[in-house]
Amino acid sequence: MKKLIPLSLFFLFLMACKNDPKQENTKEEITTTDLVTEKVMKRSTDYTNCEAVKCPSIDVAYYNFKGTENTEALNQRNQAFLAKVIYTNQETGESPETIDEAIDKFINDYHKFKQDFPESSAEYELMIDQHLKEENKNKLVIETKSYTYMGGAHGYGATHFSTFDKKDGHFIEKEEMITDIQGFTREIENIFRKKKGISPKESLNARGYFFEDDQFVLPENMAITKDSVHLMYNPYEIAAYAEGQIKMVVPTAQLQKFLKNEE
Question: Pairing mode, if any, of strands 27-31 and 36-43?
């Protein structure tokens, strides 16, 4: 239960913002080292397909960057990343390119759900917020918290880390930041086992985890900052939903021998 408290507090904060009319359609501007970071807010009332009919609850806050010649590419990558978080076609695996397109599809799915199951009292929810975790001359590290509910027993809350190259806006994969991926993975596995009280030769899956072939893998979401390496397994990634998020924060200095030195 303790693992869920920070995420719960985050969503309580978002709900408070939603109920405050002063928060709607506002933009918060923060000047970083060479960028102006603009916080853009999206609500269901911003969309034409919600003008005449009831719509799901939508609270989306994301960054739009200004101030340098490369911000267009950076914004495109961030939008595409968030669009995938908001909406992914379960059959094709495809996602829209922009946040507005993704929210439109989310709203249309809600309307179709209500048409197919008019007696259902379930309502859809979408909440997203971004925080700038670190910036230097080469990269931006962004933390995104998301929550979606589309009927069913419970919603789904997740934390996503994205690292962008400020020069060309591309999404930096972990392989670009780690020089020895195998050594790094072994070290993180040792830390994970120690944290969970699992001996070096003990089966991970025997403890209730979902690692394929019982082989440890790094989480999908990882951020490397000057001081810390953040690793986040979201619900269902390696364990049951009840396990919640599994997070590890390791001092960067402890893993430096596996990491690429930044110029």
Answer: antiparallel
